[in-house]
Specification:
Elements: E1 14-17, H1 33-46, E2 50-54, H2 60-72, E3 77-83, H3 86-95, E4 102-109, H4 112-119, H5 123-140, E5 144-149, H6 156-168, E6 173-175, H7 185-198, E7 206-210, H8 218-227, E8 232-235, H9 249-258, H10 274-285, H11 306-314, E9 334-336, H12 342-351, H13 358-374, E10 378-379, H14 380-390, E11 399-406, E12 414-421, E13 424-431, H15 435-447, E14 452-460, E15 469-477, E16 480-488, H16 491-507, H17 515-521
Parallel strand pairs: 1-2, 1-8, 2-3, 3-4, 4-5, 5-6, 6-7, 7-8
Antiparallel strand pairs: 9-10, 11-12, 12-13, 14-15, 15-16
Helix pairs in contact: 1-2, 1-10, 2-3, 3-5, 5-6, 6-7, 7-8, 8-9, 13-14, 15-16
Bound molecules: 3-methyl-2-oxobutanoic acid and zinc ion.
């Protein structure tokens, strides 16, 4: 297999994105294979150096996703995670077989607390497992990364021994995670500096860091590690990940870019793709971005107070340290209305960075006209939602054809709807605690779906009273989870679409069950 990364240069920082592995481990963030492929394609556009695609030994679904991503990614390194065990490493090697630039990422813990209570291994046994795992992984790939899990809570002398062992047996990247988000910038920086000074073969590998955000220090810790010699950072889009999440990719990249005067490092990230990637991950995982989130939050570039607005109008830099254009925020201007033609619509799509074929544009234009009939002002966000719905949505098993609601302060909320599967249409009515509950009950009756609603959220896509509502739901069924999303000027319809989208995904999860099989295992439409 080909060599995957050159030896560390002084100033280049390699961005290892683990949105699809650590990020996807966040409770409620599960993605199906098709969604992971979309994220991987966007990460490649963003310019990350390494995509950690998953943990192949964890489940057949994970294996399949890593395998498909490995096949589809063109030039970026694709990594798979494996415990320091032969069977995990073998699964990883197999899943990455078709990757142009495969990396096996194997790990064991270095802290006494993990070794004693989690792995039930002595330090000597852990060193032996490190050597065996790295040696075996190197037989399957030239590019092997080793992680000493819980490094930040380990005795430094022992950690150094473990890292030295991993490098000796062929690890080309050595990662020292702050697994539980416990360390602080000065302590973590000193740990990285200690490793540089006490691991005799350290110049044969790249030092990598991987920080969790339990104390809100993940980005600060990563930057401090870079200043002390780390040249790879592991991070996720929007900072999603286990518990409080991982270091956020967009924050690390923009710290290095915005404060280039202080930090003489660069990444390969095309920052203009940040906003789009952030939106995609948020949409697909159903994890909304808090308005005040650094870099990608809705308010990140909003100036509310009079003094600030005055300053911005006079000279932007008075209150802006970076521009929305740098991260690719589309200018939220009024673009089109019901009198706009196909040409203007196509031009706007192009302006927003979408290259679509005529069939897709025609379908979208029809939807745009329907929307413009309901809504006077059509913004970029509305167009983005149309594209996501029409072009990027997963195959729909069931489709909403008709919806009628009866609700009010002294009426029993009732929903009547028609759902289509192929050419077959079914109708159901149900009552509920409120109109949304009534809709969900009617969909359950129609499809025989017996899952659980784990999460429901709603937000306005744009400003104004005619704004479209975007509903995101998380549904669970037999231990599986899926997110659904729906957008409409009517929030009850948006709720119905989101719920049905989640039902469809759960039934088609991982693409293993055919639409027909999925239909057969459910009660099916009542005809
Ligand atoms: O947080 C952690 O330590 C990890 C490792 C498996 C790299 O995710
Ligand atoms: Zn982690």
């Amino acid at each position: 297999m080909k060599k995957s990364i050159e030896t560390a240069t002084n100033e280049r920082i390699y961005i290892f994105d683990t949105t699809l592995r650590d990020g996807e481990q966040a409770p409620g963030a599960s993605l199906n294979t098709e969604e992971k492929l979309k994220v991987a394609a966007q990460l490649e556009k963003l310019g990350v150096d390494i995509i950690e695609a998953g943990f192949p030994a964890a489940s057949p679904g994970d294996f399949e996703a890593v395998e498909k991503i490995a096949k589809s990614v063109k030039k970026t390194i694709v990594a798979g995670l494996a415990r320091a065990m032969k069977k995990d490493i073998e699964a990883c090697g197999k899943a990455l077989k078709h990757a142009k630039r495969p990396r096996i990422h194997t790990f064991i813990s270095s802290s006494d607390i993990h070794l004693k209570h989690l792995f039930r291994k002595t330090r000597e046994e852990a060193l032996e497992a490190t050597a065996d795992a790295v040696k075996f992984a190197r037989k399957l790939s030239d590019d092997v990364e080793f992680s000493a899990q819980d490094a930040s809570r380990s005795e430094w002398e022992f950690l150094a021994k473990m890292i030295e062992t991993a490098i000796k047996h062929g690890a080309r990247t050595v990662n020292v995670p702050d697994t539980v988000g416990y360390t602080t910038p000065d302590e973590y920086g000193r740990m990285v500096a200690y490793l540089r000074n006490h691991v005799s073969n350290i110049n044969k590998a790249i030092i990598s860091v991987h920080c969790h955000n339990d104390l809100g220090l993940a980005v600060a810790n990563s930057i401090s590690a870079i200043q002390n010699g780390a040249r790879q950072v592991e991070c996720t889009i929007n900072g999603i990940g286990e518990r409080a999440g991982n270091a956020s990719l967009e924050e690390i990249v923009m710290v290095l870019k915005t404060r280039a005067d202080k930090y003489a490092y660069h990444t390969n990230i095309n920052t203009k793709e940040i906003y789009k990637t952030s939106r995609l991950v948020s949409t697909l995982t159903g994890f909304m971005i808090q308005p005040n989130k650094a870099i990608v939050g809705n308010n990140a570039f909003a100036h509310e107070s009079g003094i600030h607005q005055d300053g911005i109008l006079k000279y932007r830099q008075t209150y802006e340290i970076m521009t929305p254009q740098e991260i690719g925020v589309p200018e939220s201007r009024l673009v089109l209305g019901k009198h706009s033609g196909r040409h203007a619509f196509t031009k706007r799509l192009e302006g927003m960075g979408y290259t679509l074929d005529t069939t897709a544009i025609n379908a979208l234009f029809e939807r745009f006209k329907e929307l413009a009939d309901k809504k006077k002002s059509v913004y970029d966000e509305d167009i983005e939602a149309l594209v996501e719905e029409k072009v990027f949505s997963t195959v729909e098993l069931y489709q909403l054809n008709y919806l009628h609601i009866s609700a009010g302060s002294s009426t029993l909320p009732t929903a009547t709807l028609k759902i289509k599967k192929g050419e077959v249409e079914a109708q159901e009515a149900a009552t509920g605690d409120g109109p949304v509950d009534a809709v969900f009950n009617a969909i359950d009756r129609c499809t025989g779906f017996k899952g659980k609603l784990e999460n429901y959220s709603i937000k306005a896509l744009t400003q104004g009273r005619d704004a479209q509502g975007e509903v995101t739901v998380t549904l669970g069924l037999n231990g599986d989870e899926a997110n659904g999303r729906g957008v409409s000027t009517d929030i009850i319809e948006a709720s119905a679409k989101a719920y049905l989208n989640g039902v469809n995904k759960l039934l088609l999860k991982n693409g293993k069950k055919s639409a027909k099989a999925a239909f057969d295992i459910q009660k099916g439409l009542k005809l």
